Amino acid sequence: MGTVTTTDTLINVEAINFNSNSGLSAAYADTLDVSAIAGATVNFGGAPVTIAKSYGGGNPATSVAGIDANTLATGGVSVTGNGVGNELLEVGNITRFEKVTGSAGMDRVIVADSLLARAVPVNSVLVPKSYSTYYTGLVAPTLNDIGLYQFDLAAGNNDMLDYKQETGLVAVIVDTSATATSATSSDFVYTNGARVDIANNVERYFGGTNSNIIDLSNSTVDATVQFSKEAYNNLVPNEFAE
């Protein structure tokens, strides 16, 4: 009693917008659940993303369809792989969602540079490192939105968080627990001196355009770091050049 849950079912809807008047929770726990897609790519980024040819982009810009197929829109949700520019859904003001739940396939979330901040800092999560470890001259109140954005990309074996749009320093503190499923056993991503994201079930990270740090000091097992870059053509069978 006293709790009302409303469910809207949308059929044949390609775009939905959440503006400042939308009924999103003030508890900062709104969730974008893409678990029904067998591998989803979500653009949380602040700008449309040009798609590499290995993902179905690189089409001649001679038609509206070709241009659209070369770009993943802001808030775009697509199937990971060739043709990712053909969005299943475009979510307006997608950064008003604080959590993303992934699928059993290969998921990829493209994270915006300086994601939307809240009026009230979220400092409920105990972060494993002092902010000054990576950002000099900062004190605790300076770093807002700790744990505000949480990405759990589920059971895929090559899920990705993509920070290539980030212009500030990115530091990933890797947790090596076999069951990293909570805020106490997660990867923590420090970004831009203003935010700490929580990541679960993420196997691959893309750094930003500034300095990038991989911190293994919390690791409890032997670890091998493998560097790679994304292929921007379809001449190789793998999207990534190891």
Features of the shown structure:
2% helix; mainly beta; 27% strand; globular; 1 helix; 7-stranded mixed β-sheet; 242 residues
Descriptive overview:
There is one protein chain. By secondary structure, this protein is mainly β. Helix content is 2%, strand content 27%. It contains 1 helix and 18 strands. Strands 1-7-6-3-9-11-15 form a 7-stranded mixed β-sheet, with no helix packed on it. It starts with 14 loop residues before the first strand and ends with a strand.
Q: Can you lay out the helices and strands and say which pair or pack?
A:
Layout: E1 15-17, E2 31-33, E3 40-44, E4 49-50, H1 64-69, E5 71-72, E6 76-79, E7 89-92, E8 99-101, E9 108-111, E10 146-152, E11 160-162, E12 170-173, E13 187-191, E14 195-200, E15 204-206, E16 212-215, E17 229-230, E18 240-241
Parallel strand pairs: 1-7, 2-8, 3-9, 8-10, 9-11, 10-14, 11-15, 12-16
Antiparallel strand pairs: 3-6, 4-5, 6-7, 12-13, 13-14, 17-18
